[in-house]
Every structure is written in structure tokens, then in C-alpha cells.
Amino acid sequence: MVDTTNEKNGEYCDAGVKAATKASAQCPACGIKGKTVKSITIESLVVEEARNRAGRSDGFRFCAEPSCEVAYFHPETGAQISESEVRVRIGQKETQAPRPVCYCFEHTVEEIAAEVVATGTSKVADDITAKCRQGLDRCEETNPQGSCCLGNVRLAMKEAQERAKSEPVTVAAASSEAESCCAVGSAEAPAARARRPRNTGLWATTGAVVSAILSSACCWLPLLLIAFGASAAGVAGFFEAYRPLLLGATGLLLAGGFYLVYFRKEKCEPGEACAVPNPRLQRFNKIMLWVATAVVLAFALFPDYVGYLLGNGDPHAPPLTAAPATGESRVFRIDGMTCAACAVTLREQLGSVPGVARAEVSFERKTARVFFAAGEEAPSAASLLGTIQQGGYSGTPVASSRTVQIGVSGLTCAGRASGLEARLRGLAGVEAARVDYESSRATVTVTPDASLDAVLQAIAEQGFGGKVEQTKVEMDLERDLFTVTAAKDRPAEAEMIAAIDRRGFKATVQRPRGESGSTSEPARPEAASGAMSPLVLTALDRARREGKLVLVDFYADWCLPCMHMLKETYQDPQVVSELEHFVFLKVDTDDNPDVSRRFGVAGIPDARVLKADGTEVARFVGFKRTDEVLGILRAARGASRGIW
């Protein structure tokens, strides 16, 4: 065929590509706009000779005009493929029965018409829809128009229904092309309504992710707040309280997501047309479900592995901050930490307290050690406990580090002493070690939870003999009270005072009455029923010097009410503040049975308020709440005003 357009309309030859592009979508034989088909349609349905002649299989358009002999045409190359060069009969161009309408499942126009005559409708469209849901359709490979046939099927059914009514039919030609196996309903009868698929599985999965993120907020949110310089006080405790509920909701939502994505089938009401699932959307939902599962597990298990991410899997991990510090420190037992991130946040909070050089917090041991800054006033125990409580935890002071003297036999030279000293310093739990060759003695400072057996074993492994001398140092962290029991020969009193002075403190020797020593020491009062124990006398002497009362608390580690009072009542900020007016002496009845007998303690907890002369002014037995203890202490202090 010869194109004479340029001869007739020469003035438009150079008008541009726009007019040519617009005409390129039309069939060159009949002028009807063609529908684009994919290469797979040409390769599957066109005979080989025609394909070779065309030279390519992409870019073709399908002509559905019944009177046109052209099946496919190429807008750019001008190549044409006739109806006779297609391997299957083209239903839109056929006039003789049977006229195919569905190529995937072999339905015909005549079949639909017969069903309409018999029943008034046709179920062919429903049958095709059900099979499409199962993924059995291959429209691009079997249908000459290269797309789903549902539009053609519904058009054929409508024409049959109109013929049965002997009424003329007016149907838009484009209706057969608008239909899709994956989006049913565009060409339906007016009575049928299309149901839009609900992607509830995605919503359930999203809810599971959000719930999992919130369930671990007790760990990651404080870290995030600290990173931005905000306060994280109380955050961990708040979210920890709801963590079990959030984890339960996470599990339910995730299980619901799996059910909705993998097992739930869409149901339709009568008169509705259900959408056929989109395979791409289904694959996307499954991928997103598994990605969400990984995210859920990552956040739900976050408290279990965050310590390793932060480098705190090792309980001896270095602190976050470091500053010049004195040798003084305080240790607290911490309750309420839920993961290693709690240790990081508490360590940061304690390190920011004025007068603190650094803090070391161990999640594994549930302890916090606070080192005081050199040249600054050390914070009180009450302020440190207040910081711990503001962080959402509870703290209990524990014994300070122990310094022991170990007699070492077998030291033959200073070099071997130096080697033993280096070995002892490398032991876990040893804070300081010094081996003196001249005195054949090792001075070792260990943490409260460290065992001396490991120190003695290390000495033996080096080929020496070791024996712990009768040396005991105890410290009341809240009242700066030291009790030292030592052998008669060593260490000397002057040596102990010098060691305390080197630490930056002032020491005053206090002895029970009758014991030889400084004549400047005042006489200790004695109780009417017998001599006071040195432990109580020391507290009474301090109370006399400072103008305070003495609170003696009798307890035992196995006594639950005692432990509750120690952790709850005595750690309350109001009680801690009130105790600044008392010398607080805690007496373990198991370790000090003589003191218990002296005061006639029959049951614990038992607390006595004493004047500096040993006179009892108040007592309370059994567990007492904060308000009760405050009332007793304030009443005792008020009644004792002016006695100094």
C-alpha cells in the first residue's frame, strides 16, 4: 500500500512528530486504534514465517475490528500480521460458530448465549474468576488481544441477555478492554457491586512491629534520650511495667498477620464480585510479613543482647566517663534494672552528680560503684540514692572494698615480690595490691563480692605461702564510721592513721574505757546493767561529739521484714534526710550476739534510739513504714533538745 499523505498534505510534512505519533496507534488498514500487546503474545500466537518477516516481536498493536483482516500492526516499522497468520481463531473477528471468548479455559460466545437462554444469566465469568484466583490463567500467551477475557465474557453475556429481550444493544467498544482478571467489576451488571480487597494482614503486621518497638522502649528509649542530652529518669521503669502486655499484643498481632496473609480467604456477599488476588501484591505482603517478623524479633529480644552491642557483656567493662578520683568510693546494690542499657543510663546519671568522678554500674552483679572526684566535696549518700530513684531504680548501700593484710612466706628478693604484686593486680576483683619484701606482707584491696581464696591460690601458684592476718576493716558508708580489729603487733596504730591521711581524710582514734591509749580520750559511759560493747560505745562517743542521737537497728540477712525496712523505709529520701541528725548503727544479731543480749533483743527488726549517755529514749519493733519511722525519730529528737 502506498502512503499518499505527503502528496495531499505537503504543507504538514515538517509539522513535527506529534501528528505522526497520534496516527501511529491506529490500524493502517481500518484506522481503528489498536491495543498494545507484549512480545510473548506475538511469539506464542503468530506463525514463525510472519514473525521472521516482521523482524521483531515487540511494539505490536492488536486490531479488534471484525471487518479488518489485519490482526497486528507495528506503528514504527509498518509491519502487519494478518488474521490468517495467527494460530488461533480471533473471537472478535469470527462470524461462524464456535466463536472463542476465553482462551485459557475454552469458553465460547455460543456457550454463554445458551446458558443465558436457559437460566437468564451465565456463570462463565464466575468460573473464570475462580480459576484466576488459583493462578491458572495465561492470558498473555493464549488470548490474541494479549489480556484478560473477562470484559469480552461479560459483553457476550450482556448481548445475549439483550437479544433474549429483543432489545437493541448499545455497548462501548472499550468495555471489553477495560476488564481484567485481577480487577473484577468494571463491566459488571449494575446490580453487582465489586468488593475491594482488604489488606488487613498489612495492618496487623504493622501493629505487631509498633508493639514490639514499644515493648523494648525500656532499653532503647533511655539510650536515645541520653544521646540527645535529654533526661531519661523514670523512662525504663514506666515501659518495663507494660512490657509483658506489649509482648503479648505483639505475639497476637504477628500471628494474626500470618493468618491473614497465608490462610484467610476473601468472602463475597451475594450480588458482589470478589477481586481476584493480585499475585504481585501477595508476594509483597509475604515479603513484608517476614521482614516485619525479623524486626519484631530484633526489638523483642533487644534487652537480651543490647549489653553486647554496648560492650557491656563483660562486667568489668570500662566506665563511660573518667576523671581524676580519690581513693574513696561508695557501692550500692541496685534493684529494678532490666537490661544492660539500664546500667548505661544509670552510669551516666550517677556520673553527672556534682563531686562524682565516675561511676561503674554492673547489670550482671546489680551493683553501682561511685568514685568521688579529687578536690571536690563528695556527695552525700542521700543525694546519690535520690539520683538512683529518679532513674527508676532502688538502691541499697553495701559494704565498701576490703583491704586485707596477707603474710607471705618464701620471698627471697625484691624482684620476686614485684612479680607477685603484678600477678595479684591482674586478678578479677582486686582493686589494688602491694607486696612489701621487707615485711613479707601483701596488702590487697578487693571488691565486696571478690573471694580471698583466689588471691591465696594465686600466691601459692607463684611458689609462696600466704596467710590472711587478723585484719578486718568495716566502713559505714553513710556515717563515715570505721571499725578496725587487728593483731596486737601489726599493723601499728600510727601506720593506720598515716594510711587514712594519705587518702585525704582525718582520723581520730577512739578506744573503749579501760583500754590503754591516749589519755586525751574521754571516758565512755557504761550502762547500769553492764559494760557497753565497743561497737555501741564508738557510736555513742560520736553522738556526744556531734550533738546527735544514736539509732541502733538490729537485723539479720535472713529476716525478710528487716530487708524490706532496709530497702524501703531506710532508703526513703525523707528518712535519709532525718538520719542526718542521728548516728545510725546497724547491728547484725548473728555477728554480734553479745550486743543483742545486752539490749534484750527478742525479735527483729528491733530499733532503739539512745542518748549519748546510753539512755534509751524510744524503740520500735517489727516492720515500720516511712511515716511511722519519721514520727518516732522526730519525736525522739524533739524530746531530747537541750540535753547537750
Characteristics:
644 residues; alpha+beta; 4-stranded antiparallel β-sheet; 24 helices; 22 strands; 17% strand; elongated; disordered N terminus
Report Rg: 46 Å
Shape estimate = elongated
- Cα distance spanning the termini: 129 Å
Strand order of the largest sheet: 1-2-3-4
Q: What's the overall average pLDDT, rounded? A: 75
- Characterize the main sheet: 4 strands, antiparallel
Low-pLDDT residue spans: 1-23, 168-178, 183-196, 312-326, 471-481, 512-530
Strand content: 15-25%
Helical amount: 40-55%
Topology, number of strands: 22
Structural class: alpha+beta
The DSSP helix count reads: 24
Structure overview:
- The chain is of the alpha+beta class and 644 residues long.
- Helices cover 40% and strands 17% of the residues.
- It has 24 helices and 22 strands.
- The chain has a four-stranded antiparallel sheet. Strands 10-11-9-12 form a four-stranded antiparallel sheet. The chain has a four-stranded antiparallel sheet with strand order 14-15-13-16.
- It is elongated.
- It starts with a helix and ends in a 5-residue tail after the last helix.
- Mean pLDDT is 75; it is low at 1-23, 168-178, 183-196, 312-326, 471-481 and 512-530.
